[in-house]
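thread: overnight batch results

M.L. [08:02]
morning all. the overnight job finished for the chain we discussed friday. pasting input first so we're all looking at the same thing
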Amino acid sequence: MKFPLKSDPALIDPALAGKKVFVLIWTTTPWTLPANLGVAVHPEFEYSAFDSGDEVYIVASELLAAVVQKCGLDEGDADGNRFKPKVLARFVGAKLDRLACRHPWINRPSLLRVGEHVTLGGEADAETELDVSEAREKKATSKAGTGAVHTAPGHGHDDFVIGKRYGLEIYCPVDNSGHFTPDVEHFAGMSVFEANPKIVEFMRERGVLLFTESYEHRYPHCWRCKNPVIFRATPQWFIAMDHAGGATVEKDVDGHDRTNFIENTSDSVTSSAVPLREAALREIERVEWLPAWGKVRMRNMVKGRPDWCVSRQRVWGVSIPVFYCAKCNEAVAEPAIIRHVADVFEKESSDAWYTREARELLPEGYTCKKCGAAEWTKETDILDVWFDSGASSIAVLEHREELRWPADVYLEGGDQFRGWFNSSLMVGLAAHDRAPYKTVITHGWTVDAQGKEMHKSVGNAVPPDEVIKESGADILRLWCASSNYFDDMRSSKEILQRVTDGYRKLRNTARFALGNLHGFDPARDSVPAEEMLETDRWALAELDEVIRTVRKAYEAYEFHTVYHTLYNFSTVTLSARYFDILKDRLYTFSPRNFARRSAQTALFRIVDALARMLAPLLVFTADEIWENLPLDNTRPAFVHLALLPEASGQGDDALLATWEKLFEIRDDALQSLEEARVGKQIGSSLEARLEISAAGDSYDLLLRYRNELRYIFIVSQVEVVHSDEGASGVVVKVLPGEGKKCERCWNYSTRVGESTRYPDVCERCVTALEELERENAL
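M.L. [08:03]
and the structure it wrote out:
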């Protein structure tokens, strides 16, 4: 469309003197044209003024050919040959600065200005998912438009900014319902979207429109209802971020050049001279951010954020307690008045703002200090809901005896850096001059197995209540705990099934330990640590390592580390190693045998610690384990009243290293046994006798534990043979077990039959049976 140049064209270039010059602009939002107050060009782009009959048009030189072709401005001869229009002048955009055009159909000027936001892609697309407070125009990548952008300061961020810079009125002739106000000629009362095609047709009739086309671009839409959103500049309340006198709240259309509205009167504020932005940046450094990148993100958010707009135009919400004099429109928001309103709200709730008249909310007889009038009106805007949620630390932590301010932890998603984390920080600074949280944890989002966001409409959501109904709440909790929630967490039936399998292994580990504690009284039967069998002391040393790791992970809120540590401890250290070795001692020794009591002591300490460490994750399962532990008067009645276990402090690195080497040899032995089983040499491993050849340190280690190797490797006999010093590694040979099979423990022994009283059992079982007889006789 054509904007006629009102200033003398010769100021641009002498070649344009006396010409009818027009600046060609384009827009994708015709409804904003009634609010046009200017045209923006880029100061460094080259522009061309070209002759088109009796008119001269100005466009960006780089877009000249495209504009001429689209608008049909190229000349032609009788043979159909087209000719480029004549360029009368070329100049940089800065040459146009502060010259004036005239609105195409409204009798008012349109100021030419320069701005870096102008691109060769025409009007920029707004973000598809709009946050109105942070909406920005997005630069187009394809070359389109004219290089001259229509500017309406009341209908766009860039337009607003450049309009303020040039002192233009922030004109917004659109009311709260999205209809043009009565002062808009030809289109008054129309909704802006209804007016769009009518404005286009009106311009065509007036001869100011050169070209129209369908143009697909991104446009802001409400994230909730998906309807298009329009930009309107309206008077708002702002909290100043850089005011040197502390937090202030003031009302204007842009957040600049305002008078003081609310002074900070909190007695706890100690640095009111520090601007809010500076104080926020200080506190960000003091807070622990998990993951660590949260600090950088929050710091950048605060550094770049504009003054905080805290008002919203809604018919619901917490009102802004401001009164206006009906006579002189003086705004009243004195601390005493606000406290008076707060006292009313405390008794009647914030609904009193809507049910009471203004005079009923003010102290009796209150008059305007400026003009003395006694009639008042109320502010109709409400507080930004982020202000409401930002005040939650004050509302919650300062009104419950069991809580304290500041909070230990704030936990929310990554979108809250500009939301709850941000507003809470600002309110905390205003109230107490410090952040309302010590630690901030940012979690990811729940996605499906392919990493796609879950939506009911898509059908890929996993309803939590269905998981709970099918598998129990602890499965859902374990899925949360097993995932690294700092990142997006994948969920599907298959993933939940894997979590269920992991849960069963944890549960079965506890079940095995509890099942073998029957008849064990911790106070009566516990064996002192220094007297326990070495296998049991090794298991407790491993437990100490786990406790240290788990406590550290809990302190860092790394619940996935807790889960994986306990899972590996249960499945590898306990089930695959310790319990496997322990079964012979637990099942064949007499109940009160010292070696069995040593094992039970270790099992009791392990399952007690396991319940405590699982309690924050598997609340019901841990409680069930706790209920089935042997009675102990020193233990709290409920696991959730118990503290996390402490490492015993008796860890033995040398012991752990020794047994790690033994288990390496054990892995070789188990592999050889499996090969012999597959080859039909043996059935059960107890049918085997191992001949192990080793040299050096390995031989010394095996020789040292030669009496324990049969239990460690779960065979009937083990013979250690010294190999040549030059031989490498350990060689395991599987042979048939010697002697007869004991009917009680299934081990093979050459001494089966020595006892006439118990002719079918080995020497170990004879001793166990005799001990049982003595125990039963007591």
